[in-house]
Amino acid sequence: QVQLEESGGGSVEAGGSLRLSCTISPLTFAPACMGWFRQAPAQGREGIVGFESDGTIDWADSVKGRFNLSRDGPKNTLYLQINNLKPEDTALYSCAAVPPWQAHFCREYFAARHYHYWGQGTRVTVSS
Questions:
Q1: b/e per residue, 62-98, with b = 16+ CB within 10 A?
Q2: 109 C-beta neighbours (distance < 10 Å), count
Q3: Which residues contact 63 (CB under 8 A, 6 or more apart)?
């Protein structure tokens, strides 16, 4: 059974940084692509970044320049580094994965409906 688990969220002041983690199990599962999404209170889900194993990364315009992505292959973990946090970054951050047999969905990284596996999310709260 494929599972995604996020961690690293918390409450920080504006200007601070956080590194969110998304660990996929089992280690043998290799998704076609992955994405990070966030959902602010009373708002819809927003796609932040899409990532493929070949290194292709696509960022949403709203987060370019402050967010970075890295990966630990042996641990099957994807990291989202968020710098210079702003109050508007307050949201539940979730990672998601597209299985290999649905790789055609990876053409639209920010379409949440295409992702088959989701984590429970980790909450980020930024105070001004």
A1: ebeeebebeeeeeebbbbbebeebeeebbbbbbbbbb
A2: 26
A3: 48, 49
pLDDT (tens place) for every residue of the chain, 128 residues total: 999 999 999 999 999 999 999 999 999 999 999 999 999 999 999 999 999 988 899 999 989 999 999 998 888 999 999 999 999 999 999 999 999 999 999 988 899 999 999 999 999 999 99
* Residue 58: how many other CB atoms lie within 10 Å: 16
Side chain identity at residue 38, one-letter code: R
